[in-house]
Amino acid sequence: MKGCATNKIIAKKKSANEELDGNITRMIQEMKDEYKKKYQPDISKRYAKPSGWGAIRREINEALKVRKDFDF
After folding, report:
1. Could you read off the pLDDT of 11-45 as tens digits, one per residue?
2. For residue 10, what pLDDT band results from cuts at 50, 70 and 90?
């Protein structure tokens, strides 16, 4: 039954489906890459401290300091 026409048709469908699967996978990957470029922020900017952060932090630290000569 190797020469059966049905086997040839099924084999052609499988190869066509595999080709379509490859195309779909490629399209999905391209869409994911475009989404990342468009919507996900730059990681280096995500953790950046705002300007003047050091001065504000210093004021908060001094305000929260407990004087050493203060008795509870």
Report:
1. 666 676 788 888 899 999 999 999 888 877 666 66
2. low
Q: Residue 72 is which amino acid?
A: F
Query: Tokens 């399209």 belong to which residue?
Result: 27
First and final C-alpha spacing in the chain: 97
| 3-state secondary structure (DSSP) of residue 2 | coil
Residue with tokens 């919507």, as numbered in its chain: 39
Q: Which of 32, 30, 11, 33 is nearest to 22 (CA)?
A: 30
* Residue 45 contacts residue 39 (beta carbons within 8 Å): no
Q: Write out 25-67 in H/E/C secondary structure.
A: HHHHHHHHHHHHHHHCCCHHHHCCCCCCHHHHHHHHHHHHCCC
